[in-house]
Design goal:
Structural class: alpha/beta
Low-confidence stretches: none
Mean pLDDT: 96
CATH topology: Rossmann fold
Number of domains: 1
CATH architecture: 3-Layer(aba) Sandwich
Largest sheet: 7 strands, mixed
CATH superfamily: HAD superfamily/HAD-like
Helix content: 25-40%
Shape: globular
CATH class: Alpha Beta
Strand order of the largest sheet: 4-3-2-1-5-6-7
Length: about 210
């Protein structure tokens, strides 16, 4: 019986990549999106790509970060799926290689129990181009899910994970139910549930 569900945020609970929306505000959306694509496909080291992309955001007003973070398009069925899982007694958590400005705001709207993400460093109201936090590395999600399982007393077999990109691979290694959601090929190869339609409620039909 499932007890823990861990969802990625960007392109999973949210329809898009938060950092690409930030980049659009600076007119460098295509440049940042190209790096994001390489990282999510597993062709570029996640830590290096994150540093590189956040560096390009240097100077962006933090008020814009907050505005964008609070107006992101959530994935079709995200709220309903989380509610259904919680009604079944699962703890539902969000892991994001993106940012707390987005996941922290989404937590109360979508209803998940906790979020682990990165924090954009700001000084004097502007981004400095630096970033730190819980999900900086390719291995971060796998490391964090093992710690959560230990705290909650939950086994891999009792864990569901859902994501779309290469940086979700490390948590896939520690879950019995592995959902690749509109995912890159590298992740689909490790999944036992593949959903290629943008509706998270389809997960409920598979578990």
């Amino acid at each position: 019986m499932l007890k823990l569900a861990v969802f990625d945020f960007d392109s999973t609970l949210m329809d898009g990549e938060t950092i690409d929306f930030f980049a659009d505000e600076l007119g460098i959306g295509e440049k940042v999106a190209a790096i994001t694509q390489e990282a999510m496909s597993g062709r570029l080291d996640f830590f290096e790509s994150l540093q590189q992309r956040v560096g390009l955001l240097k100077g962006l007003d933090y008020s814009v970060v907050e505005k964008v973070s609070q107006n992101l398009p959530y994935m079709n069925g995200a709220k309903e799926t989380i509610k259904a899982l919680k009604d079944k007694g699962l703890t539902v958590v969000c892991f994001s290689g993106g940012f707390r400005s987005a996941t922290g705001y989404a937590k109360d709207i979508l209803g998940f129990d906790a979020d682990f993400a990165n924090i954009l460093h700001e000084k004097d109201g502007k981004l400095t181009g630096l970033v730190g936090g819980d999900m900086m590395f390719f291995s971060s999600k796998g490391d964090m899910i093992q710690r959560l399982q230990k705290i909650l007393g939950v086994s891999s077999e009792e864990t569901l994970v859902c994501g779309d990109g290469a940086n979700d691979l490390s948590m896939f290694a520690h879950a019995g139910t592995r959902v690749a959601f509109c995912a890159r090929e590298i992740l689909q190869k490790e999944a036992n549930i593949i959903i290629n339609e943008k509706d998270l409620r389809l997960i409920l039909l598979e578990i």
